[in-house]
Amino acid sequence: MSHEAREIRLALAKESTPVSARNETDQEAEYRAQTRLWLRLLACTSLIEGELRRRFREEFDFTMPRFDVLAQLDREPSGLVLGELPKRLMVSAGNLTPIVDRLVADGYITRTASNLDRRVQIVCMTVEGRKIFRRMAKSHGAWLAELLADFPADRFDGLIGELDELKAAVRDALQKP
């Protein structure tokens, strides 16, 4: 769902009649809290992603989407059906095609037709692709450690657990008719 669509859904939710017996003031306070939570999550994501994008560009002349494709392929040594990549990366196939084309042209991945069905393309990381990915992944981990160094490490597990619950609640809400 796009950023604009989320904002529209939030605005519509604010205008809807509260479904619970809570009074309007409580409901408005809850909406404000939900909005603040969403904005904090968005701000954290934007800050971290912006810095990671900058570092990939400056240190490796690479984009995060290209790194993300290599990360998926690194998990699958025997390769992946090309149609699976957009699902895993949560992007459209049209957005992924130029990224895959560039990675093939640079020699970091191969794209071959399946022996079982020639219409199905299999993408695999090359030795060179794995080598560059491992260097970038090591840097990526160090950059994240640097960016998150001032947050108490003993609070990571609790925060991850809370965010997992939030993710599940959002997914459940999206499943409702």
Compact overview of the structure:
The protein is mostly helical and 177 residues long. The protein has helices at 3-15, 24-60, 64-74, 84-89, 93-105, 127-147, 156-175; strands at 80-81, 109-113, 121-125.
Topology:
Blueprint: H1 3-15, H2 24-60, H3 64-74, E1 80-81, H4 84-89, H5 93-105, E2 109-113, E3 121-125, H6 127-147, H7 156-175
Antiparallel strand pairs: 1-3, 2-3
Helix pairs in contact: 2-6, 3-6
Characterize the biggest β-sheet: 3 strands, antiparallel
User: What is the percentage of strand-forming residues?
Assistant: 5-15%
Q: Characterize the overall form.
A: globular
Task: List low-pLDDT spans.
Answer: none
Helix run count: 7
Helix share of residues? Answer: 55-70%
Mean pLDDT across every amino acid position: 89
Distance between the termini: 16 Å
Going by helix content, strand content and strand pairing, the class is: mainly alpha
Structure description:
Helices cover 68% and strands 7% of the residues. A 3-stranded antiparallel sheet has the order 1-3-2. The protein has helices at residues 3-15, 24-60, 64-74, 84-89, 93-105, 127-147, 156-175; strands spanning 80-81, 109-113, 121-125. Helix 2 crosses helix 6 and helix 3 crosses helix 6 (127-147). The chain has 7 helices and 3 strands. The protein is mostly helical.
Tag the structure with descriptive keywords:
single chain; 177 residues; mainly alpha; three-stranded antiparallel sheet; 7 helices; 68% helix; globular
